[in-house]
Amino acid sequence: MKLRGFFIGIAMCYVLFALLSLVYGVFAYRAAAVFCGCLILFYMLKSRLAELRLGGLLVFLVLIIAVFSLFSLQSSEGRSLFSVMVFIGALGVSWFSLAARCTFHLYELPFYIILGATLILFLVFGYGPAEFNTVLAGYSRNGYSAILLAFAGGYIFSRIYRGKRISLVLMMLVLISSFPLYGRSGIAMAFSLFIVVLCYRSLRVAALVGGAGILCALSSLDIIESYIYGATNFSAGMDSPRSEMLLQYLDSINGLGLLTGLDLSQVPLIFEYNNNPHNAFLLLHSYYGISMILLICLIAISLFKLFVEKKFALLAIAVLFLCRALFDIIYLFGLFDYLLFPLLFYWFFAKYFRSSGSVSTPLGVR
To answer: Which domain holds residue 232?
Structure first.
């Protein structure tokens, strides 16, 4: 029991250091978080490797990716190899959170704090898109939105995992908070998460709310359209430099680049954005090349298993975050991936779901 409490404290330090690294942009905080996560993973490997299939394939995956990271070590200025350490640390925290059943401490509690802070900044201090752009060092309001949504997804997962009721009020507050954050993908994802929770709670209520929402929208279409185009980035339409970045990246790939990854500075538009491809999958390919196919296959198997076991709410959350990763680089091999790993690597963690006492029915309806 004392050892469990000690490592819960280490895991909470991981979350704290991860948040501090975002707020202040100091590498030392990021490195401290990685150290905490790696320490936890080594503890888990020592104490639980024999009882879980996690060891074999994931350790093999990490080794393969680490080898491929050497090809882009110079062009990424060491980030490709350090990101492997980030992956290991997040994996350790995720594994421990399930084994020790402490998802409340690591998933729900930080969500309450971050959502509360967001509401205070928005409602009390009047923060809008310009102000939220300055909250996190090195990240725009889109990054802030991505972090808030990651913890919202982690909160939903934890409540389902622990068999607890998910608060529609909190998810509505997340949706409301997404508007001053301005981003199109953030608003769309917050709305989607709200719909997932609504369906999880009750398909009948979801249908009634959906019907009422459609009627209200039709009767107030001009007002809604005016607000959306005036107060959000939907005024820019659906066009984005991200699609052009993808096309230029694909055009720049040759045989060797496909195998080992492509230097992002070779793509003109990405180079203009400080080598930020605004797409996690492009970034991972540039770092690790074709080795990412193994990771994608493992994720696909987990998604299929969630579908077969009719854990549709969890499946929807995983797919939403993978879609969101198409628009930013803050997910996948980031410090907050521990919130997503129980779903993306569900194939390995299914044992803990079966022993958690949570009930799984279509869309989670009980």
So the answer is: 2-364
